[in-house]
Amino acid sequence: MSAHVKSFAAVDLGASSGRVMVGRVGPESLELTEAHRFPNRPVRVPEGLRWDFLSLYAGVLDGLRAAGQVDSVGIDSWAVDYGLLDADGALLGNPVHYRDARTEGVAEKVWATVPAAELYAATGLQYAPFNTLYQLTAARSTAQLAAAERLLLVPDLLAYWLTGEAGTEITNASTTQLIDPRTRDWSHDLADRLGIDLTLFAPLRQPGDPAGLLLPRVLEETGLRGPVPVTTVGSHDTASAVAAVPAAGERFAYICTGTWSLAGLELDRPVLTEASRAANFTNELGLDGTVRYLRNIMGLWLLQECVREWGQPDLGELLRAAAEVPALRSVVDAGDATFLAPGRMPDRITDACRESGQPVPESRAEITRCILDSLALAHRRAIREAEALADHPVDVVHIVGGGTRNELLCQLTADACGLPVVAGPAEAAALGNVLVQARAHGLVGDRTSMRRLLARTQPLRRYEPRGDAAAWRAAQDRLTRG
Hints:
482 residues
């Protein structure tokens, strides 16, 4: 391998699977290969829904072994969830899953102390029932929290087990609803009012900061030769994915697609207005002082759950059949909390159509088309509202993540938004993870340089808008009236 090319392992954990990818980066090259992929299967135990964290850690070790010798390791994952450690540094039970029922009704208790408008003005975070703030409030009287000496968000917990060093990465910390996006530091006043002990959190880290070296026992188990540093990346997978948006300027919107759709803008300051709160936009922190101003939409979770209920039919055939179904016959609100929990998704979608007085989709293809039309409509609404609320016009929409492989969804999003869509890269979170490591090791420059390298080296596909813009407006009106 050239002296100017280095290898980086990206540990990238999603809500349904994890993977360890290897990125090889040089001044004009960026190659990504998959070393190991493993399932992420939550487990329902008597006390509720839990992540199988031991299995995830084993998958990471297997992945590092498969990756071979690397110059650095970076870790990103989903947001908000955490593990608690006791005074000896031992994990106090498996981390609670964000879809667990413990946060039901908790937000109202928080708002009784800090009204929702005040909470948004302080943190800029959209309401979601599973935000870490609500999870901690729900856990307040538990023996586990009483015994805890340290709280580590999921990627930081993995880094701790790999290195023995504890930190709290800032992009993920911003999803706790305990960070002030203006100061990019903890909101101490807010935490004090809500009785949350911020000393549970390890010191804040920035993307690019060193996060320790792989421990001797980790080196032994993975067969790697030390020293191997762990480098802090944008450890919220969306922060890493946005870092890998191959945009040429500032007038772009992005949609990070997967289990969730995160649709929004990259800004240089948060939008903390009451109108922004009412529209349920969030201000999460990104690389280099940026703000990820976005809305969380249910995403391909809707289709994933239907496919699971249907016994895993061939997805390609399903999408081809859906493309033949008449457009916008029935749509649902893809952001509705009705669809958050697993189970009975096809029935819930047909019920929603029936209750809103629309034609009820009956076949699998009709339900699939309803889902994809609804997602495209949700993308349209999020991007148009973000433009208006942030006073930030958009010329192009970049779709990154797993949804880039869904050609029908990409075309429908272009049609709905009335803007060209550039789809790719599919493995955006892993590529952003790799590029932040590469930058920390002197191989690439600023964010603009990172994006130019992505545009030169990654396969991208452009979709031009087509069809009837009025039909999308009418569908939105129908949904709004419903």
